[in-house]
Design brief:
Helix content: 25-40%
Function: Contributes to the regulation of the Wnt signaling pathway. Down-regulates CTNNB1-mediated transcriptional activation of target genes, such as CCND1, and may thereby act as tumor suppressor. May be involved in dendritic cell and neuron differentiation.
Protein name: Protein NDRG2
Pfam families: Ndr
CATH topology of one domain: Rossmann fold
Radius of gyration: 23 Å
Order of helices and strands: HEEEHHEHHEHEHHHHHEHEHHHEEEEE
Keywords: Cytoplasm, Developmental protein, Differentiation, Neurogenesis, Wnt signaling pathway
CATH architecture of one domain: 3-Layer(aba) Sandwich
Subcellular location: Cell projection, Growth cone; Cytoplasm
Mean pLDDT: 82
Length: 371
């Protein structure tokens, strides 16, 4: 008979000393619930403390989705309807997410003391490396709205090698001119801070209609316990510097960019101008009809679909199934990709009101999208 040999078997996930299999399952379930709820962290930076919430676990060779919210909002009120949307789940299963709250905007934030010097938008952008270093993340895909879109753009200009792509909603890359300042001062004499911020977030048509969404966000901002902090963020936004984008120049975004704005939104002209200044081979322009000033709140389905195409253009989620827009009566999306190395790095979107099929467009051409 052959000699028996002793074989040592090691558990793939060994139990802790004294831990029963039932307890191990409960601990694993608790860990999953914690990931689903998000883990909130704070780090100190040269410009003060910043809070952010992480959902999911890092995926090998994939960037983190990194969001930054607009004035008057925090990450939940700005992005929750988008990231909780059904079709978005396919995306968030493939990426870890980092949602940043601007200083003093997180839930339960104490009011800053009188005379506190709030960071400029440039300084807020310079806080981001501290977050990525804390998490040991090397690259991101940024998703920003309004002031958050500006902050992520400034960060991308300063640290281009760490940004794989940007989704910029309602970006205004320009500093306020003298006429803008005069109008702002006059408005400040007759309107409260909450009303001015609402006018920044939503169109006049939306505000006049006073829909349930408008009532909800008017209540959130008007009764915010940290309204003084919100005003400081608002002042920093109004004191922003010009990003000085120049098509064909040295100052430009070097990663794929998807610009998004609602039809007749407050920042429509600014986003159109921004589109004219960026590299057309790297830039997609999405103008969304019937979405108002905050398309991520009013049209999360259409924005999710466009985001999937954007990620596919970057070489991710190649097997993702596009359904919502392709079934729509106004559902033709034309995508064009320019190749950078071995991977497609840009995506141009267009939409027609008649066709329902996907086709290829000419590469390197930025086209307006109405959906």
């Amino acid at each position: 008979m052959a000699e028996l040999q002793e074989v040592q078997i090691t558990e793939e996930k060994p139990l802790l000393p004294g831990q029963t299999p039932e307890a191990a399952k409960e601990a694993e379930l608790a860990a999953r619930i914690l990931l689903d709820q998000g883990q909130t962290h704070s780090v100190e930076t040269p410009y003060g403390s910043v809070t952010f919430t992480v959902y999911g676990t890092p995926k090998p060779k994939r960037p983190a989705i990194f969001t930054y919210h607009d004035v008057g909002l925090n990450y939940k009120s700005c992005f929750q309807p988008l990231f909780q949307f059904g079709d978005m789940q396919e995306i968030i299963q493939n990426f870890v997410r980092v949602h940043v709250d601007a200083p003093g905007m997180e839930e339960g934030a104490p009011v800053f003391p009188l005379g506190y010097q709030y960071p400029s938008l440039d300084q807020l952008a310079d806080m981001i490396p501290c977050i990525l270093q804390y998490l040991n993340f090397s690259t991101i895909i940024g998703v920003g709205v309004g002031a958050g879109a500006y902050i992520l753009s400034r960060y991308a200009l300063n640290y281009p090698d760490t940004v794989e792509g940007l989704v910029l909603i309602n970006i205004d890359p320009n500093a306020k001119g003298w006429m803008d300042w005069a109008a702002h001062k006059l408005t400040g004499l007759t309107s409260s801070i909450p009303e001015m911020i609402l006018g920044h977030l939503f169109s006049q048509e939306e505000l006049s209609g006073n829909s349930e969404l408008i009532q909800k966000y008017r209540n959130i901002i008007t009764h915010a316990p940290n309204l003084e902090n919100i005003e400081l963020y608002w002042n920093s936004y109004n004191n922003r510097r010009d990003l000085n984008f120049e098509r064909g120049g040295e100052i430009t975004l070097k990663c794929p960019v998807m610009l998004v704005v609602g039809d007749q939104a407050p920042h429509e002209d600014a986003v159109v101008e921004c589109n004219s200044k960026l590299d057309p081979t790297q830039t997609s322009f999405l103008k969304m009809a019937d979405s108002g000033g905050q398309p991520q709140l009013t049209q999360p389905g259409k924005l999710t679909e466009a985001f999937k195409y954007f990620l596919q253009g970057m070489g991710y989620m190649a097997s993702s199934c596009m359904t919502r827009l392709s079934r729509s009566r106004t559902a033709s999306l034309t995508s064009a990709a320019s190749i950078d190395g071995n991977r497609s790095r840009s995506r141009t979107l267009s939409q027609s009101s008649e066709s329902g099929t996907l086709s290829s467009g000419p590469p390197g051409h930025t086209m307006e999208v109405s959906c």
